[in-house]
Amino acid sequence: MTAGQRDLRRGAAALEWLFNPFRSTPVPEIYDLISTDAISENGLYLNLGDWRTATSIDEACTALVHRLGAAADLGPGDAVVDVGFGFGDQDIYWARAFEPARITGFNITRSQVERARERVAAEGLADRVDLRHGSATAMPLPDASADKVLALECAFHFDTRAAFFREAYRVLRPGGRLVLGDIIPARPGPTRARRAAQRAGWALTSRIWNIPRANADTPESYRAKLRGAGFTNIRMESIRDDVFVPLHRYVTARPELMRRYHPLLRLPFHAARYADPARLYSGLDYVLVSAETPA
Ligand SMILES: C[S@@+](CC[C@H](N)C(=O)[O-])C[C@H]1O[C@@H](n2cnc3c(N)ncnc32)[C@H](O)[C@@H]1O
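# S-adenosylmethionine complex -> structure
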């Protein structure tokens, strides 16, 4: 196949992904399409970032990764499980910044696993960071073998989030900790128009990102699922104001960041440039969650 034919095929797949309301693109196909064209300028991060003090995409992505690691209280000696690791930047960061004994990762997108493994090896971390192909909902790990389980911006994809909570509980030792950066529908707003915009926003987001219906949790149902799996000491904080609008402002002020995307993948971005960000993201909440297995 020539480069031109490959480009055409990619364009057709992008069109189908973004605009065919009758087909949900499987999650690994979505990430194959996005490929390594992440908008981060240096790394290959795919998270939306913590923008409280950041002045670039990479700083924001790293800040969010650090925030999760701190919430998990990662430290020397920890056996860590990381699910949905993207291209592995977060594992390279945690391995260096917190020095856990080992990190075992699972990701269902094979192309990302291959690339992440190469990057971990190039950083000289292959003896401590073991990244594998596999699903967060069925991890080939013994019971009670992990101290911490982390899921950064991926649990909304899982089929289902509740199944993942049960699996995380199984692999965590007593007194272990689960930490997530996750996306759920926002609390309904005060007016009918706002609630309609929120429902539309969530419906579009969940179609594009193939989010199972069962994962449209409220904060209450989210906590109930964690409790149902056996977790205690549940903490949930909305950090939406640190994420969506500042990211939108940063990216829309720099259209050149989108140049590496296929022209068809740039269309929603150009449309979004003219939207009011507060309204655009009104349907989404970004939550930082931690929970523990009883000691
Ligand atoms: C938005 S990306 C986030 C990647 C990375 N955590 C980051 O922040 O850069 C979502 C990730 O979840 C992975 N994923 C989706 N469903 C999964 C599953 N069932 N098990 C493991 N990984 C999954 C995708 O392949 C992708 O790497």
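# post-check
Strands lie at 79-83, 102-107, 129-133, 146-152, 172-185, 232-238, 284-292.
Residues 27, 31, 45-47, 83-86, 90, 106-109, 112, 135-137, 152-154, 157-158 surround S-adenosylmethionine (CB under 6 Å).
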